[in-house]
Amino acid sequence: MTNVFQPDFRPSGARTAPPASTAPEASVTKADTQDYFTEVADDYRAWSPSYNMHFGFWRLGLNPLRREGMLVEMNRAVGRALRLDQPRPAHESTQRRCVVDLGCGAGATARTLVGDHPSLFAVTVTNVAVQNRIAVRLDAGAGVADRVAHIEADYTRTGLPTAQADGAWAVESACYASGTAKADFVREAARLLKPGARLAVIDGFLLREKPGRSAGWLHRLWADSWAVPTLAVRDDFVAALRDNGFEDIEVRSLRWRVAPSALHIPVLATRFALAELWKARGRLSPWRRKHIVASYCALVLGLFWRDFDYCMVTARRSD
Fold first, then answer.
1. Which stretches does UniProt call biased (Low complexity) (predicted)?
2. pTM of the prediction?
């Protein structure tokens, strides 16, 4: 792949990592998450041929029956949150902008944004090798292979240089960091961003540390099935942003924006499960079975309004 980045934006050769967290290990480990995404990589094609591995963003003018259009619109919502459309000072107008996707899946958001913004270049970070292989193939088909680079790394210690990113985002991936504040994720995002650059996080959030009994049980079933240690607690996450030098923090509920795409789950998941069980003669691997279970859980979890919300959190790195 052609390298399109400034030399100081490449992953450092030494890849020196900070010490591992001393927090108690969650019941779901990073190895579990890698195994899950490796095993179900092809299954995500049923949700989106372009590998948009997230819910969609509905707005007036979009057909709620066409899922792919809403999924792409969620990518563009990230671009708007990063304010990529805003005019830049004349002395910066010809400069390349570099952005980072922390937990990219197969790079769908990066493909959309670099396709929409000719001056943009993206680095995506995932610790799942098969996702990068899928991403490289899709980049070539989209004609953006020379403006996206995919690295295999832990997004809480990427090895990328400090204060070089013009923006960063995590779409349904911050939840895979440890703890209810996702402090390791926030700390690395703060390190990567230039002063004044913006972070956008779109994900499910717990609204209180101890959900009600039914919501707590459902959250644990969902989390274990999608290899998530725990969802962030919204207030803990916001506090972690403040503690790591972020300002202008805004939390926006997207509950109604994602509802039309979430309503695609019952028919799609049932059709997918029956087809795959038929092909496999009734024998699906444990992670593939859990993937189907989690799909249903995600829809039901959204009904517990006191305990759960789906939000976009944006913040600006302090100058």
1. 10-24
2. 0.90
